[in-house]
Amino acid sequence: GSCGARSGTMRYMSVARERPPVERIVRPFQDFADKQSSGGILLLAATGIALAWANSPWGESYAALWHTKLSVGVGDFSLSKDLTHWINDGLMAVFFLVVGLEIKREVLVGELSSARNAVLPVAAALGGAVVPALIYFAINAGSEGSAGWGIPMATDIAFALGVLALLGERAPVALKVFLTALAIVDDIVAVMVIALFYTSDVSWGALAVGAAFLVALVAANLAGVGRTLVYAVLGIGLWLCFLLSGVHATIAGVLLALTVPAISFINPGAFLDRGRYILDRFERAGEKGENVLSNEERQAALHALNHAAYELEPPLHELEHTLHPWVVFAIMPLFALANAGVPLGGGIADALTSPVALGILAGLVVGKQLGITLFAWLAVRSGISELPGGINWRHVYGAGWLAGIGFTMSLFITDLAFSDSSLVDAAKLGILVASLTAGVVGWTILRAASSPR
């Protein structure tokens, strides 16, 4: 008996040695990262910190930090911008790269790949963009705030899906798919609006060099180049050209995404054959518990298996999988921290009743849910589309409310639309209040519309 207990203890110790103590520390963070609501929680936390900091006795340090100049140069060439611009023009280009990768994936193999499946989210997204813009413009026509019509058109996909994830099993899978596809189409519209209407004076020379980089990226795709490093290096050149051209640099992220290959360089059958052969080699090369470090044959087999897996995974998926955690857990919270700090002072009521804030509030809170529901109903009523199984019109209406969470994209467009700090602050305050209202109401509607499964 004691011998059996000792052998059991030895087996336990062996397992314990195989699972290092650091795993117990890291595991809670991994579990948090795996949850769909985690990105929204971090965004909310960063927003709260930014607001508290900007309105604290240390509010001046908040403004001073984000206006700190940072210069990068090589030889005679130097680029100098404040931290806010490095985040909004630089890091957000990576955000738009991931958005572009998601758009391409959805068009190729997702909900937007079938014309009939795509009609409903496309119609809903167009309604959710056009109606809010018209409402905003009706309130601000002829005023200095009229340029902000693009602000209430946007939907924050991370926040919207994060709120939906809080419903857990109550949220039908079809509703998550619909909201994701809607938000993807919304992003396409937002990118087009930024490119066409929020671009300053264009430097055609820089744009011509950027076009050369784009041609090189397309050529790499057609030639079957699978190394993401090649696309990253050429993408940096494309971003720099767009930054210097006057066309907003984040558009370079979307264009780069469209050139990344979405095919595998080995078919699944060949991968299975090669994988079985390599694993047989690995098994024959040594004893079961032998350390790989001391066995060159096993090391070679391991590298061969890694190479086969690398050839099977499309570069688009590899890049999206690599960048997504950085965007969700670093870039977007940092963007919120740098942009959401609105000094409230004593003029909250005046700011919220200004035409800019009212236009954004009406656009996001009223226009989004009205436009999405109306255009989706018209698409179904006309017979060109149908409601996915498992969801009803209350779900669509609730999703319309969640789409009113503009936040990241709305804040981004605000900085492009306005240079007057008072208009910027009024717009940001309107975005925060509207996004909070839309999120709470949308969650309440969807919770009532769905019973736990």
Structure description:
Strand 1 and strand 2 form a beta hairpin. Strands 1-2 form a two-stranded antiparallel sheet. The model is unreliable at 5-17 (pLDDT under 50). Helix 5 crosses helix 8 (173-197). The chain contains 19 helices and two strands. With 453 residues, it is an all-alpha fold. 73% of the residues lie in helices and 3% in strands.
Report mean pLDDT, rounded to a whole number: 83
Structural class: mainly alpha
Strand order of the largest sheet: 1-2
**Overall geometry:** globular
Q: Give the SSE string.
A: HHHHEEHHHHHHHHHHHHHHH
Strands, count: 2
Beta-strand level of the residues, as a percent range? under 5%
Radius of gyration: 25 Å
Spans where pLDDT lies below 50 across 5 or more residues: 5-17
Task: Provide tags for this entry.
two-stranded antiparallel ribbon, 19 helices, mainly alpha, 453 residues, globular, 3% strand
Q: How are the SSEs ordered, and which strands pair?
A:
Blueprint: H1 2-18, H2 22-34, H3 38-54, H4 59-66, E1 69-74, E2 77-82, H5 83-109, H6 115-140, H7 157-165, H8 173-197, H9 204-222, H10 228-245, H11 250-259, H12 268-284, H13 296-312, H14 315-339, H15 348-352, H16 355-381, H17 393-402, H18 407-417, H19 421-449
Antiparallel strand pairs: 1-2
Give me a quick take on this structure.
This protein is mainly α and 453 residues long. It is 73% helix and 3% strand.
